[in-house]
Amino acid sequence: IAVWDGYRGVGIGTRLLDALETEARLAAFTRLSLSVDTDNPARRLYARCGYSTVSQDEDGVRMAKTL
């Protein structure tokens, strides 16, 4: 997901993740994963929303959350 600079920090990313998780649960998913650049500030959002780092290398960070 991406949120334009002028709209960051007002809860849009959190609401998007919440909606994604709701739909994933309805579709019987039990886990979600994502990849993010190491220096991307969105990592804090993902951690705050319950995603944990699974692995990290020069290509970025993989994070996952059990639903």
Strand content: 25-35%
* Low-pLDDT residue intervals, each spanning 5 or more residues: none
Please tell me what the overall shape is: flat
Task: Tell me the total number of β-strands.
Answer: 3
Secondary-structure-based class equals alpha+beta
Relative helix content: 25-40%
Terminal-residue CA separation:
18 Å
What does this structure look like?
The chain is of the alpha+beta class. The protein has helices at 12-26, 42-48, and strands at 31-36, 52-57, 60-66. A three-stranded antiparallel β-sheet has the order 1-3-2, covered by helices on one side. The longest helix is centred in the first third of the chain and has 15 residues, at 12-26.
Give a short overview.
The protein has helices spanning 12-26, 42-48; strands at residues 31-36, 52-57, 60-66. The chain is of the alpha+beta class and 67 residues long. The protein starts with 11 loop residues before the first helix and ends with a strand.
Give the topology, please.
Layout: H1 12-26, E1 31-36, H2 42-48, E2 52-57, E3 60-66
Antiparallel strand pairs: 1-3, 2-3
For the structure shown, list the relevant keywords:
2 helices; 28% strand; 33% helix; three-stranded antiparallel β-sheet; 3 strands; single chain; alpha+beta; 67 residues
